[in-house]
DNA sequence: TCAAATCGTGTAATCGGTTACATGACACAC
DNA sequence: GTGTGTCATGTAACCGATTACACGATTTGA
């Protein structure tokens, strides 16, 4: 038993398909009486319009595609959530496509989106601008959101990883650290490389010698890298980690080894994932308002789509690269000496002071 | 400049559209020579097939819909991730639709999926079976995944919340707790209610008096609820929390108040979100393998779809309700003196047996 | 009273594919 | 030479909507 089509409804209501379409969509010119009859027929037949067919004739899908990297975690999930929230407001659906890890796979994923979406988010770093151009023959509206997208001429939103890394190092310096190590993200990852570069620059500016070990952005590698640092002859009193998960792994490693944080070593992460506020000590990190960034991205894409289907080229501003500047969030993993002194005043421990700070965050 | 269509390619290669379609899709009977010519033309014109049009004629979208509740967090994100991973393997895309929080909105979201998807996951608890039936006039293959879905005759995957709650209470009893409080999830939430019911049953079986405060599944409410418990005259030595986030909030509240965990009070959560292993003390909780559950759900739905389009009705097994049994993961938030657990082994109750069942299933 | 404007409705083309069936060429067997 | 079978290819119907345009009926104005 096939679902009813618009023709079934038309037959049942004894009108033409055109009238049914008119009655069901915008209120074109239809008599109140026939409209009523049509609605009753639609109800009786449990008619539900076929979105695919509608898209074909209107060439509007009300759907946006997201090209994801091969593996993604908390960060992208949260980003998608932010996009989804905004998408609903704008009347759009979201369709996700995990691309393969090579450029060809990603290009194929993009192509498979044709006729399915009105616009595309590309979060997959495998796609460079050249590939992108050939991949989307139909030149869909696009918003790029992978590290290094800023170099493209396409509209994009990128995180200021370099600036964030600078801020992290500067903060460690300000709290008195003199020997700052860096647990880097995986080589080849553009975000990781930008953060590493920022660290190296900031260290050079401060006239300090850099000290880098490489992780893979996962908690386990943070743990291992911290152990490697402790095993090495070189001393350190501060660690800037490429992301929060590695920082948390490092915190646990220090804790296990009896190295106190922040007294013996201060730790800074990157991203401000929800866990960062919940571990002890609370993790000082660079906050990216992920969901909000997702929302902004969606608005940009929708703006582009509307501009494209109405006027001419999109507005000038919409083809620009938008930069999200991470914000330093100071927690107890780098408690400045000033705060520590204050916590010591009268109270039995600094725990209370730090805990209060966290509550405000949460 | 419109993207090239199949007719453009046909014209360019001087063949009919049928040949182009045949050449590009399965290798029907096409001369190697014409195929080559067609592929070259497609390349030259940067032809990309229009998935929407293809779906219309094949009535196959290779897309699955997910009807989400109004607000969703880490749990659903992880579930979607698991589904996505599996979807890729099966050649499907995923389209998400956040429904509104009322039943009408959810029904509308389901209807808007017609012609867009080959099957549907319903994670939105607002939809009861009756609404669902009317909402999907076209009777799409469906997998239900909200609490209470077990009562429906439709295929579903549900978490054994009740059993999990039992296991939590039993574990607390086994570690020596005598006065166990429960921080419940929000009233009206089916998962929360099932966990509460399990707690009440287990307490009744143990001949203990229950002690319940209500939270809302967020960390903040766990914090507040724990403070409320401490402020109340009634003493307690164990807390079973409706989910991990509230448990973590409670842990922080106890820490701030100088109440030691697990010495003064033992805490158990539910879900085993990634943070649970990273807080200190590590949170004892009931693990749900979220991503794996998502993968299973996807396989079920795909199985249904394939059965529907090939043979007759789906297999008997596929219309059953599948139960995911949470697995008790013991960490330091509950003192896991093994001897105590062993001692429980001797008791006539089904407690230990059920706990073993959990482990095997997980 | 007749032409023009207005208005509700129907007819049929269209979106971009897939595919059942028709066609025509060629080979082979009698 | 004719009939038959095979095989590559073309023609056109279809999927289920939207919508430009046509049409007939009614109203309006001179």
UniProtKB/TrEMBL annotation, chains A, B:
Superkingdom to which the source organism belongs: Bacteria
Gene3D superfamilies (UniProt xref): 3.40.50.2300, lambda repressor-like DNA-binding domains
Pfam family, one: Peripla_BP_3
UniProt keywords, alphabetically: DNA-binding, Repressor, Transcription, Transcription regulation
Biased composition range(s): Polar residues: 351-362
Region (Disordered), start-end ranges: 335-362
Residues covered by the HTH lacI-type domain: 4-58
MF term (GO), any: DNA-binding transcription factor activity
Protein name: LacI family transcriptional regulator
Protein source organism: Brevundimonas halotolerans
Lineage summary: Bacteria, Pseudomonadati, Pseudomonadota, Alphaproteobacteria, Caulobacterales
């Amino acid at each position: 038993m096939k679902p009813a089509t618009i023709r079934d409804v038309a037959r049942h209501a004894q009108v033409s398909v055109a009238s049914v379409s008119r009655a069901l969509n915008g209120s074109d010119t239809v008599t109140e009486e026939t409209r009523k009859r049509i609605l009753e027929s639609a109800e009786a037949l449990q008619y539900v319009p076929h979105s695919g067919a509608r898209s074909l004739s209107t060439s509007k899908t009300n759907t946006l595609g997201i090209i994801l990297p091969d593996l993604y975690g908390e960060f992208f999930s949260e980003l998608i959530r932010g996009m989804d929230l905004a998408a609903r407001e704008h009347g759009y659906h979201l369709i996700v496509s995990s691309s393969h890890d090579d450029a060809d796979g990603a290009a194929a994923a993009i192509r498979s989106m044709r006729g399915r979406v009105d616009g595309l988010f590309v979060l997959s770093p495998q796609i460079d601008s050249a590939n992108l151009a050939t991949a989307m023959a139909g030149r869909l509206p696009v918003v790029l959101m992978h590290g290094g997208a800023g170099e493209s001429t396409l509209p994009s939103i990128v995180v200021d990883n370099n600036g964030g890394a600078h801020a992290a190092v500067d903060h460690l310096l300000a709290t008195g650290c003199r020997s700052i190590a860096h647990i880097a993200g995986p080589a080849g990852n553009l975000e990781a490389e930008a953060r590493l570069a920022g660290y190296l620059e900031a260290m050079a500016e401060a006239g300090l010698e850099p000290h880098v070990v490489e992780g893979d952005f996962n908690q386990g590698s943070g743990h291992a890298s911290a152990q490697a640092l402790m095993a090495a002859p070189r001393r350190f009193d501060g660690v800037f980690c490429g992301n929060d998960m590695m920082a948390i792994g490092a915190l646990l490693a220090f804790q296990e080894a009896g190295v106190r944080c922040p007294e013996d070593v201060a730790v800074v992460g990157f991203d401000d994932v929800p866990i960062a506020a919940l571990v002890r000590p609370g993790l000082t990190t660079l906050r990216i308002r992920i969901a909000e960034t997702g929302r902004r991205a969606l608005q940009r894409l929708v703006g582009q789509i509307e501009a494209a289907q109405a006027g001419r080229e999109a507005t000038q501003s919409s083809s620009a690269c938008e930069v999200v500047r991470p914000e330093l969030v100071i927690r107890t993993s780098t408690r400045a000496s000033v705060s520590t002194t204050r916590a010591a005043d009268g109270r039995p421990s600094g725990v209370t002071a730090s805990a209060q700070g966290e509550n405000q965050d949460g």
